[in-house]
Structure formats: structure tokens, C-alpha cells
Amino acid sequence: MGFSISLFILLAFSPAIFAQNSDDARLVIDTNATVAETDDNYICATIDWWPHDKCNYNRCPWEFSSVINLDLSHPFLANAIQAFKNLRLRLGGSLQDQVIYDVNLKSPCKQFGKEKSGLFGFSKGCLHMKRWDELNKFFKATGALVTFGLNALHGRNHDGRGAWQGDWNSSNARDFIKYTISKDYRIDSWEFGNELSGKGIGASVGAEQYGKDLVHLNSIIDELYKNFRPKPLLLAPGGFYEKLWFDKLLQVSGPHVVNALTHHIYNLGPGNDNNLINKILNPDHLNKVSATFGNLSLSIQMNGPWASAWVGESGGAYNSGGPNVSDTFVNSFWYLDQLGMAAKYNTKVYCRQTLIGGNYGLLNASTFVPNPDYYSALLWHRLMGKGVLDVNSNGSPYLRSYAHCSKQRAGVTLLLINLSNQTTFNVDVKSTSNTELHLKQKVDTREKSFAHGLKKSFSWVGNKASDERLFREEYHLTPEAGELQSKIMLLNGQALQLTERGDISTLSPVRRDINSPLTIDPLSIKFIVFPNFSTPGCE
Q1: 436 labelled catalytic
Q2: Residue 429 in contact with residue 414, Cβ under 8 Å?
Q3: Contact status, residue 150 vs residue 191, Cβ threshold 8 Å
Q4: Mean pLDDT of all residues in the chain?
Q5: Which residue of the set 313, 447, 483, 539 is catalytic?
Q6: 467 — pLDDT class (breaks 50, 70, 90)
Q7: Three-state helix/strand/coil letters over 227-281
Q8: Considering 37, 63, 195, 474, which one is annotated as catalytic?
Q9: Could you report the per-residue pLDDT of 91-148, keeping only the tens digit for each?
Q10: Signal peptide: which range, if any (predicted)?
Q11: End-to-end CA distance of the chain
């Protein structure tokens, strides 16, 4: 039985077994206007509250990675965050609605412990202000932009069936925010509650009550930040999208109370699903979540056009992620595809569960060494600008494509994701002005005139461009030894690993002549930067 399963995996996911197929695809990028826009700091990662004894499927993958016990002195951690310059960090998760803040407390400040009657099997926990001071010193040193999730259940009564009733008691949160301001700690945004929307996960609060409490919290923020700038954003509800509940929340809270609606996505199912890799490589499955993005956009448009959409938490597979899947190369097919899809629906920020902790951490919870998805996130952050461009493709659904204005430079960055295990795609890229970025290798008299046309149409960098050859920059991502479940990612054939000092690898492209064939191998990912491409929509 073990041999047959191994043989199946080998046949399914080793492209070397198959005769290589080749297929053509033509992409047309509309560079005349952007179709959506993200925040400048679109990439975000979470730090959760789970203790080390949080376990799923007889595994306990969280180690010491929580808000309370994460080793902030570990050099790999600071280096990983600083590589982004300003990485968004969302502090929150399932236990945040059981956190008490150690400000003016009349009872001891205790840590989380196992408790059968508690939410998710844990007791209430407490955040010491000494730890909060340490965290903020770390955030300032690393340039992190912080979203903090507040306890939205404090003071409510549990009805015994999952729903919580009554007004929110804001006193502890108010004292905590006041302390934060007194220390001059910069919080980018306060988020209210975690997964309490709709039916909720473990607990729920009705939309009308939630909306009223948000109005109250907004008044507290307005009052306390009256003489403090910048004033943080207010985010909510940090839960799974349910149309009627989200619509009602916006209607009750009213104009300019909630700055962003945060929703959670785990569209790969439970972490112990043996079908995880098949889901990741199935374009039909990846497409399903587009309905959530589209419906949330409509809810905002119809009920709260002053608000934006954020993905506040997304880990692919829930219950700590999939062991030997969420922390391996294959997960980047899901992760990068969802980053691209979310951006097309005007999502401003996308928070990955987690920065560290669980199986889905961007960093290994024990060693703090980056997993493959860390490098995928960093490449996106450095290459993909906030302007989203429309891409029309006549190719296979297994070839996924997303284009953005390049980040802090002229041109276009294209992301290609090849989900096929046996087809190499030969890609022609055009703009709506019919200017080709690539021609297939052809021996004809049009090649010289094509290059001449490029020189006329492109926005040049430097004053000698007309005398220079035209290049594109390629970042080709593959797994080590062709193993999809490898924890080592290759960039242009070179392993991405920390330096001896623990610094992040240099992410350098390969430069290709603009006229050379553009291809993408089976089960691989490629960022392509066209630095000289004219983009009137990006200006």
C-alpha cells in the first residue's frame, strides 16, 4: 500500500516522468488604466496568541511563537521583517477575545492555560505591559506597521449556544489604548474582534450589536487620539464573510466609522486533508474564492463605500495549516495566486497567517529560518506596485497570470504561475497598444523593425537607451531537486538560504534579451519585470 501511494505521488507530481508538452499562450496587458489598487504595503503577516501546547492532528507546531512568548531577540526574526522595510504585522487570532490587558487590573495577570470550558479549550490570558513595551521597542526597531486586535467579547454574556449577548465593556481596552498613547507607541490600526461575525468560530455576536459597539470604539479612538497624529484606522470584523451580517454591520455603524472590512479565508480546507496538493494545483478550486472577493466588494459598494477591503487572515489550510505542505514550495502556488486575485478585487492589504507559528508560518517556528512562501512574499513586496493591470489570456487555465505597475520604477511586472505538471508554456506578451514585449524565435525581416518599434514606444530610463539592447528581468522560482514538498526554494537555479550572518539572500534576477523566447516550465513560478515598457495607466 505504501509503495502504491508513493508511486502515485511520483507519477502525479514529478514532471520528469512525463514527456514534456509545449503550448502557446498570448497575454494582452491593458496598460492604459489600472483596474484596482492595493496599499503600498500590501503584504502583511500575523502573529497569533496560541500557546506552545496548541495542537492539531497530534502535532503541536506552534512552539514559542505567540505575541506573549516569541523570542524578539532572535536575529533571524528582525532580519526577516527588516527585509520588507515596512512589513505590516497583525497581532491577533482566535484567543484575542480572551485577552485582558494589564492596566489598572484588580486581579492577577495570568497566562493562557488549558481549560475545557474555555473558548477553544483555553482559559483567559493577560498581556503584561512590560511585554507590550518590549513588543513596541521591537516594532520600532524593525519598521513594522502594527495592527492590534482588541478583545470584543469583554463584558458580554454567553448564552450557552455560541452566541454572546449584551454591550461590550470598553473599560479595559480604553485603558490599554490610553497607555499605548502615553508611551508614544505608533499603532497603524486597531481591529475589533476575531471571527465573531455571522455564525462565528467558537463564538458570535449579532451584527446590530457589533455595529453599535464599533460606533462606541470609534468615539474612544477619536477622543484619545485628539492630540495625537496619525490617528489609527479602525478595522472590523476579522471574520468570515457572510453577506447579510456584513451588510448589516455597515448599515448600523454608519459612514466613516469602519475604515476597512477585514475578512478571513481558508479556502483549502483542514490541514489534515490528504487532497491539499491537488486543491492547490487545481485552477477550478483556486477560482472558487473569487466569489467571496466579488461579493464583499459589492457589500462595500452598496452599504459602505467609505470602507476598503482587507484580508485580515489567510493561511490556506486551517487548524495550523498542512504539515509538509503549507511550509513547502507547493504552497506558493496557492499563496501567490491568491495575492494576485485579491488585488484584482481592490483588496488593500493581505495578511498571511502567520509570520511565525503553526505549519503555515513564513518562518519556521523552531529555527526562524524562512520557508519558501517567505521569499514569495518578499519578491511580491519588492516587485509588484500598487497599481493592478488587467491581463487577458487565451492560454490554458493552468497558466495563471497577474500584472501590476512595477514598484518604485517604470514599467510592468508580470507574475506567471504554471500549475501544469507537464506543459511548458511559450508566452507572447502584448499591450493594448499592440506593442509586443516578446516574439517567438522567428527568422524573418521583422525582427529589426520590432526592436525599432520598441525603442519608440517604451518609457526609457537614462539618456542612452536608444543605443542599448533591451532586456527583461526574470525571477524563476522552482523547488530544490524538483520536489514540490521541498522546504528549499530555488531562484534562477540557486538555493535561497540565509547567509552565515543570518541575513536574507540577495534576490537577483536573470536579464534576458527582450527578443529571446519567454517560457515557463511545468510546476514553476516566474516574476518578469519589463522596465522599459510604456505604462500610461501607472503615471
Answers
A1: no
A2: yes
A3: yes
A4: 91
A5: 313
A6: very low
A7: CCCCCCEEEEEEECCCHHHHHHHHHHHCCCCCCEEEEEECCCEECCCCCHHHHHC
A8: 195
A9: 999 999 999 999 999 899 999 999 988 899 999 999 999 999 999 999 999 999 999 9
A10: 1-19
A11: 59
Which three-class secondary structure state does DSSP give residue 499? coil
Residue 15 has what pLDDT? 45
Mind listing the pLDDT tens digit for each residue in 147-159?
999 999 999 998 8
Record the pTM: 0.92
The answer to whether 472 and 466 have CB atoms below 8 angstroms apart is no
Residue 449: count of CB within 10 angstroms of its CB: 9
Query: Which three three-digit cell numbers place residue 91?
Result: 497581532
Residue type, 505: S
* Residue located via cell numbers 499605548: 180
Give residue for cell 536579464.
511
| Separation CA 400–CA 336 (nearest Å) | 10
Taken in order 322, 323, 327, 330, the sign of the CA dihedral is negative
- Dihedral over alpha carbons 457, 460, 466, 472 (to 10 degrees): -90
Residues of the chain with pLDDT > 90: what percent? 85
Collapse the DSSP code of 472 into the 3-class scheme (helix H, G, I; strand E, B; otherwise coil) and give the result: strand
- Those residues with Cβ within 8 angstroms of residue 475's Cβ, 6 or more apart along the chain or in another chain: 379, 383, 491, 492, 507, 509, 510, 526, 527, 528, 529
195 classed as catalytic: yes
Q: Which three cell numbers stand for residue 40?
A: 503600498
Q: Which residue has the cell 514538498?
A: 485
Chain centre to alpha carbon of residue 448: 42
Nearest to 276 by CA among 7, 3, 12: 12
Assigned C-alpha cell, 350: 493581505
Is 16 in contact with 482 (CB distance < 8 Å)? yes
Question: What cell does 79 get?
Answer: 532580519
Residue pLDDT, tens place only, 68-89: 999 999 999 999 999 999 999 9
Grid coordinates representing 527 are 516574476
CB 515 within 8 A of CB 8: no
pLDDT-derived band at 161, boundaries 50, 70, 90: confident
- Give dist(CA 213, CA 209) in Å, integer: 6
DSSP label of 166: S
State the pairing for strand pair 471-479/510-513. antiparallel
Grid look-up 505604462 returns: 535
Give percent of the chain with pLDDT exceeding 70.
90
